[in-house]
């Protein structure tokens, strides 16, 4: 949940389409479940449920915070265009920041955003260092968010509002788009040797995990691309996950704790960022929270938990929400590809 400003080449069309934005939402740091913005399946029995995969039971918001507090790295997933996912994660980050601020010897976590490219870090650093840092809206404007391919800036403002309010460090997690394109086109040889070694890119996913990733990418592209395109796209996805893991490790070592904000596809414990963290820092204490849109006719939490090829859960916690209203992704992809004369859609990303 591949999330970069992947433009131009078909080989960087990774993951699901970023869809039309839902309505703007306000800050919701005070309570995690005051109301829903997403409209579909609001009355679903699982909407609002927080499920602990580890314990096999429901949790309250306070219980989830208590269980996340001891972790050195917390990975929070999303469906990119679901405003409730951003609201709930804003609440979680605010709570985690306050809890750590009130604990002797603890530091508030740094926040790594998949939505900010590595080449944009100087913009963020300069903004945070300025005496008049301004608002989240101003930061998003400086990041040229309206041209990034992500859903509307207003949808992400609750997250940035909380991060800025608590003066949390912000790190750009996404690999540069040109580098992702080169990996998709040329393979891992496009990455400088020292970086390949540092990221441990020679250690590839086990075959069942690799096949599952390729299958997922193929399904997400609605049969519109040749099968030969998917293996390079999967390799680019793995590079992006390795890059996100690298920034997380830097953030955790510098600040004591780190939170990743990324698509659900990037936070899976079986094959995404957590896999790369295990290769490089197996001692790291981590937790993954996936934000899951409920589905009609599936009313048991265990029926909607992401799973690995062996059927084991691929997340530690799942927070269920209504589904955002959106255009059919395959229709949108067809229209985008037609408009680009066979090129890749403007922005593709792992949800």
In short:
This protein is α/β, with parallel strands linked by helices and 351 residues long. Helices cover 39% and strands 13% of the residues.
Features:
8-stranded mixed sheet; 351 residues; 10 strands; 12 helices; disordered C terminus; Rossmann fold; single chain; 13% strand; alpha/beta; two-stranded antiparallel sheet
List the helices and strands and how they pair.
Layout: E1 16-17, E2 50-52, E3 57-59, H1 61-68, E4 73-76, H2 83-101, E5 110-117, H3 121-129, H4 136-142, H5 153-165, E6 170-174, H6 177-186, H7 193-199, H8 207-220, H9 230-255, E7 258-261, H10 264-267, H11 273-280, E8 286-293, E9 317-321, H12 329-339, E10 348-349
Parallel strand pairs: 4-7, 4-8, 5-6, 5-7, 8-9
Antiparallel strand pairs: 1-10, 2-3, 2-9
Describe this structure in words.
This protein is of the alpha/beta class. The protein has one domain (10-18, 44-349): Rossmann fold (3-Layer(aba) Sandwich). Helix content is 39%, strand content 13%. It has helices at 61-68, 83-101, 121-129, 136-142, 153-165, 177-186, 193-199, 207-220, 230-255, 264-267, 273-280, 329-339, and strands spanning 16-17, 50-52, 57-59, 73-76, 110-117, 170-174, 258-261, 286-293, 317-321, 348-349. Strands 3-2-9-8-4-7-5-6 form an eight-stranded mixed sheet, with helices on both faces. Strand 2 (50-52) and strand 3 (57-59) form a beta hairpin. Helix 6 packs across helix 9. The longest helix has 26 residues, at 230-255. It starts with 15 loop residues before the first strand and ends with a strand. The model is unreliable at 1-30 and 342-349 (pLDDT under 50).
């Amino acid at each position: 949940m591949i999330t970069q400003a992947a433009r131009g080449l078909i080989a960087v069309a990774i993951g699901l389409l970023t869809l039309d934005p839902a309505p703007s939402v306000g800050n919701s740091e005070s309570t995690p479940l005051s109301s829903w913005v997403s409209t579909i399946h609001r009355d679903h029995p699982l909407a609002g449920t927080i499920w602990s995969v580890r314990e096999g039971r429901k949790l309250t918001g306070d219980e989830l915070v208590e269980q996340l507090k001891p972790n050195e790295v917390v990975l929070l997933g999303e469906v990119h265009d679901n405003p409730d996912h951003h609201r709930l994660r804003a609440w979680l980050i605010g709570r985690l920041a306050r809890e750590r601020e009130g604990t002797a010897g603890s530091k508030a976590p740094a926040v790594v955003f998949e939505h900010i490219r590595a080449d944009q870090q100087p913009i963020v650093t300069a903004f945070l260092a300025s005496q008049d840092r301004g608002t989240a809206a101003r930061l998003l404007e400086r990041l040229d968010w309206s041209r990034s391919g992500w859903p509307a800036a207003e949808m992400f403002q609750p997250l940035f509002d909380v991060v800025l309010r608590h003066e949390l460090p912000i790190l750009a997690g996404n690999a540069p788009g040109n580098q992702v394109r080169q990996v998709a086109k040329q393979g891992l040889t496009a990455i400088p040797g020292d970086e390949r070694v540092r990221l441990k890119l020679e250690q590839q996913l086990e075959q069942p995990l690799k096949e599952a990733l390729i299958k997922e990418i193929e399904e997400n592209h609605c049969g519109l691309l040749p099968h030969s395109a998917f293996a390079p796209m999967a390799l680019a996805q793995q590079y992006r996950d390795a890059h996100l893991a690298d920034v997380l490790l830097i953030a955790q070592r510098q600040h004591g704790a780190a939170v990743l904000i990324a698509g659900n596809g990037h936070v899976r414990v079986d094959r995404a960022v957590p896999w790369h963290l295990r290769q490089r820092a197996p001692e790291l204490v981590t937790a993954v929270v996936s934000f899951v849109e409920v589905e009609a006719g599936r009313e048991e939490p265990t029926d909607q938990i992401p799973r690995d090829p062996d059927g084991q859960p691929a997340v530690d916690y799942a927070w269920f929400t209504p589904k955002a209203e959106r255009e059919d992704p395959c229709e949108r992809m067809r229209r985008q590809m037609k408009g680009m004369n066979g090129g890749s859609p403007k922005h593709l990303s792992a949800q």
